Amino acid sequence: MSIQSVDRALQILTLFSHRTPALGVTEISQAVGLSKGTVHGLIRTLLRQGFLQQDQPSRRYRLGLKIYELGIIFAGTMEINQKAAGPLNQLAKTTQMVCRVSIWDGDSVVITSDAHPRPRAVLPHQFGPRVHAYCSAMGKAVLAFLDEKLLAQYLERTELVAFTPHTVTEREVLVADLAETRRRGYAMDREEAVHGMGCLGAPVFQRDGCVAGAISLSGAVARIMGDRLEDHAEALLKTAAEISRYMGHLPGFSETASAPRAH
């Protein structure tokens, strides 16, 4: 397979999402700007290698098990997931909240791991593993530790779209929120991304002082922001500091100028 073919095959794979889990040849052809014949050839290769599968009744294509397999390998071998596993499980038990790990990627955060207080604890949400930074506690926990230049660049290229009536869409308000986040050490999301849901997020630092990612605890907004808010925040900060130590971070080591590393 040539470099061009690899590039085209990857374009096809990135078309699939939570909103478009299944696609037909015509849809794929139109989306990537290639002929149906070319698309058929690429799909055959992706089917053979397990990266796509075909739904027989509809004849449409979905992501294959090989994608899932590689994702499991990736998540299981990430340092932050490995270091966070024990502390995150303990945080979930202590707070009785769903807890997550995320990393910074581009201008958003990607959820890479989670922990539940009970085996069947399921938190309803309306987003996938990639979450907008400006309206999530995990994202704001990272944004708060960007230097002014990097934050200004992020704000310049990011449209602050409202997902709920509580989403912050004014840049000045967001900047003030991030300053407060930096002061107290953790970020808050009061129904900014999902109706009825609240979230607290704290940054995790790696050995060079850069932000490795963030952890969060999520639940019904009344539970998160209720009379146990300070207890939840204290437990979150303690856990984030513990994971940061496991990542080799020395407290106080140049967090003020740190920027997230690409993953």
Features:
263 residues, Arc Repressor Mutant, subunit A, Beta-Lactamase, 2 domains, 6-stranded antiparallel β-sheet, two-stranded antiparallel ribbon, 8 strands, 19% strand
Order of helices and strands: HHHEEHHEEEHHHEEEHH
Residue fraction in strands: 15-25%
| Main structural class | alpha+beta
Number of domains: 2
Proportion in helices: 40-55%
Please give the radius of gyration in angstroms: 20 Å
Distance between the termini: 26 Å
Average residue-wise pLDDT: 90
Number of strands: 8
Shape: globular
Low-confidence stretches: none
Major sheet: size, sense and barrel closure?
6 strands, antiparallel
CATH top level of the largest domain?
Alpha Beta
Question: What's a concise summary of this model?
Answer:
The protein is an alpha+beta fold.
